[in-house]
Amino acid sequence: MESEILKIENFSAGYSGLTVIKDINLSILKNKITAIMGPSGCGKTTLIRCINRMHELNREAFHKGNIYLDGEDIFEMNPVLLRRRIGMVFQKPNPFPHLTVYDNVLAGYIINGIKLKREEKDKIVEETLKKVVLWEEVKNKLHLKGTQLSGGQQQRLCIARVLALNPEIILFDEPTSSLDPKSTVEIENLLEQLKDTVTIIIVTHNISQASRIADYVAFLYLGELVEYGKSEKIFTTPENPKTEEYLSGKFG
Amino acid sequence: MKVLKDRIFKLFVIFCSLTSILPLLFIFFTIFKKGITSINLEFFISLPKPPGEIGGGILNAIVGTMLLLFFSSLISIPLGIFLGIFLYEFRYEKIGWFCNILIDVLQGIPSIVIGIVIYLWIVKKMEHFSAISGAFALSLIFLPIIIKTTKETFEMIPFSLIESSLALGATYPRSVIKVLLPCAINGILSGILVGFGRIAGETAPLLFTAFGNPFLNFNILKPVSSLPHLIFTYTMSPYENWHRKAWGCSLVLILFIFILNFISKFRLKRWKVKF
Amino acid sequence: MISEKIYKRIIATGGVLIVGLLLSIFFTLFINSMPSIKKFGFKFLINKTWDPVFGNFGALPFVLGTLLTSVVSLIISIPFSLSLSLFISEYYRDRFFSKIFEIFVEILAVIPSVIFGLWALFYLAPIVRNIQIKLSLPPTGVSILTASLVLSIMIIPYATSVGKEVIKLVPYDLKEAGFSFGATHYEVIRKVVFPYAKSGIFAGFLLSFGRAIGETMAVTMVIGNSNFLTFNIFHPANTISSLIANEFLEAVENIHISVLIELAFILFIITLIVNFIANFIIKKMRVSL
């Protein structure tokens, strides 16, 4: 049942001269929520931006080592096609301001110039918005601009536009850090539901959030992977003293 | 003493500020008072008559200005947006920095000098004045305005929007066309309107290019009149009823420019894309 | 769909276009002024006679006319633009009145120069004529002073828009420190605001000056178009730009045309330098602040 979808091998990355993450080895399991934790500046975001090859968009960026998606080396793949298989949701909700709610869900198709029939569009929009539990709230607001929704709704819309492309993995970069507590709970519940269809990798510096939703936890410190394992184990009996210090709030 | 100095200085500042807007109010008042009397339907739909005769209008200048605006937009808008994208994409590189300065230089060139340059480039080659040479001259003034607003609007758009588009598997060029450009369109549009207002009032570059024409002309290869040029020639003429026409024409021109600026400032805000 | 590499390459042609455009403007002016430069050399700038009929061309009256009109207009406009900057950004900052003034200044910037000229010819020139009569000078009405007066109104927005921005940049705690010593508002402005914002304010004046040098229509309409050298601001004169506007189409001799193009070239270089310094100061302030 537990199969590996993503394998990170001896992986280092950074910006010209400055190594941000060092020699990471990590296996991500399919249909699980894996949380990547660590104090700020530890390279969490850099790591997940390497997984969908957003990191290399920076001209100063470099990377070493391998990442395999279903056994395929991602650095051999076309980055554009890779990013359709590995979606990403950002820290701040950022629906496209020039598109309506309806078109925001279809943004991946619109921007990529994929033509769809009207019925197909309607179907994708309704199904996807139902998946992110937004349909009931916005079904009468589909013509509004995406930016006219509330913060939590916007973030769910951003998840919807990623889901609409049927990715295998979705990367979340601290998706609730700019949301209020109520919206945060809604997003967390949503992630639990989504893991039946996709694999989720979430970066968070919120320890309790990781403990609430993650199946697996990776703890990064100063660019190195300190500990990785099932979340119950990490939170109850961590092996590395560094992890324990972090979980007890010794550093932040 | 100390307090007195403070008071006097403040009064001086207020006094000077108020005085400096007096000419503006006075100009408005005169243009309106003098201009409104010469404006009627005939003024808009007929051609100028010889100085002695009563009546006649400025249709040739209205058509001329529209022709000039239309053709300089045709040249400047696509080119300006393209060059704006260039400056945006190369903003962290030396060449982008250098071209930015060159655009400032272009914007600073006195408009009469631009008139001479276009005269040498086009009018001399064609051996006669033409609307199209006027449109090119105005384009050199229009271009830097569009380039700058395009670049500045792009810079205000959060980069995360492009990232999101890339993360959805779009190529970079596609993200520019499908995300960056649509998000910036309002800013660019307002720059275009402001630019329209600017070039609609330019006279100096037209003296040696579009030249002026008392007859109705739609042929871009022939000289045309324009509102500012007509104001100039009528003002400098010795005829009293032509002076009146110049005031009327000024009123038309200034209202046109105000409407453009007003739309760009207030109307566009309502359609503004929020981030 | 085009790839990123091709996209970058297409976009990069923009740089070629911009550099090419500016180079062609520069060389067009330079090459076409060559006959004049070769014939008259540097003496051109100090020769005070302008006589197209006998082919004797000297630029001095126009260089001087340009400098006189722009300097006088700048001097007249300084107290006003400075006051407006202080009014908008210091005394009534973010208040209703300062918004109104800001709008007024913006409106001033969009009025076409030819309309200023029309107004000045019919309303400023008569005032100047009265002054000339009182001073028992030839009552021409049109003169350097008339041109400077209308220019001083026209350039107010340039100095004000820069001035008000740099005054807004003065950190509040610096001013507060001044007030806490018991300084009056005037003293704070003189001792804190001005020293802090002076280079920006100066850049604004330079921008205004650059505008005044290059301004054509309004000046042409009220300066009187006299080609004789004069230092008296109540006399008619010509600036470089008004001379070009008047004579360029009437010039028949090749050398006459070339001389006028050389004058345009000189005008181009002067405005280039003035704008360059102003923009340099403004950009530097934005970065360091």
Characterization of the model:
The complex is a heterotrimer of chains A (about 250), B (about 280) and C (about 290). Chain A is α/β, with parallel strands linked by helices. Chain A is about 35% helix and about 25% strand. Chain A has a single domain, classed as P-loop containing nucleotide triphosphate hydrolases (Rossmann fold), CATH 3.40.50. The longest helix of chain A has 14 residues, at about 120-130. Chain B has about 280 residues and is mostly helical. Chain B has a single domain (about 60-270), classed as Orthogonal Bundle (MetI-like fold). Chain B is about 75% helix and about 0% strand. In chain B, helix 3 runs antiparallel to helix 8 (about 170-200). The longest helix of chain B has about 35 residues, at about 1-40. Chain C is mostly helical. Chain C is built from eleven helices and two strands, in the order ααββααααααααα. The interface between B and C is large, with 78 and 76 residues.
What is the string of helix and strand elements of chain A?
A: EEEHEEHEHHHHHEHEHEEHH
Range of strand content of chain A: 25-35%
The proportion of residues forming helix of chain B, as a percent range, comes to: over 70%
CATH class of chain B: Mainly Alpha
Radius of gyration of chain B, CA atoms, in whole angstroms: 23 Å
Instruction: State the CATH class of chain A.
Output: Alpha Beta
Straight-line distance between termini of chain B: 53 Å
Mean pLDDT of chain B: 92
User: How many E strands of chain B?
Assistant: 0
Straight-line N-to-C gap of chain A: 36 Å
